[in-house]
């Protein structure tokens, strides 16, 4: 877990968060590989992109479709993913997938099922 925390901390500075001052980096573990994403804000806030969804997009681009775990780090954390990210993560991970929420002082682990108990599935 400490190696993952170091990777997350090393990349949080790449987040683009000039409006909120709330940088976030996510690392998705999927099918034996890892994929990173950072949040990218926009002056038109609804156009901003969350780190978790950017990491999932990198995973999908690499041809992966099933995530086992997602790690989220913010210097203001540990923080849970937003509602939209919870739904996207559920789509690719299912309720048993782990969400590890890291902050400067430690981390918390929850399942997606705990974070989104009535998630939408087709």
TrEMBL record:
This is Cytidine deaminase. Pfam families: dCMP_cyt_deam_1 (PF00383). NCBIfam families: cyt_deam_tetra, PRK05578.1. The keyword Zinc applies. It is an enzyme of class 3 (hydrolase). Its EC number is 3.5.4.5. It comes from Thermus tengchongensis. Residues 1-122 form the CMP/dCMP-type deaminase domain.
């Amino acid at each position: 877990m400490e190696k993952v925390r170091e990777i997350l901390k090393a990349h949080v500075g790449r987040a683009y968060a000039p409006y909120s001052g709330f940088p976030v980096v996510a690392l998705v573990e999927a099918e034996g590989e890892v994929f990173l994403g950072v949040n990218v804000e926009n002056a038109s806030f609804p156009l901003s992109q969350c780190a978790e969804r950017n990491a999932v997009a990198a995973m999908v681009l690499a041809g992966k479709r099933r995530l086992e775990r997602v790690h989220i780090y913010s210097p203001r954390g540990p923080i849970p993913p937003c509602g939209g990210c919870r739904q996207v993560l559920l789509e690719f991970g299912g309720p048993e997938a782990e969400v590890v929420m890291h902050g400067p002082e430690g981390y918390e682990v929850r399942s997606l099922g705990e974070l989104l108990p009535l998630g939408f599935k087709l």
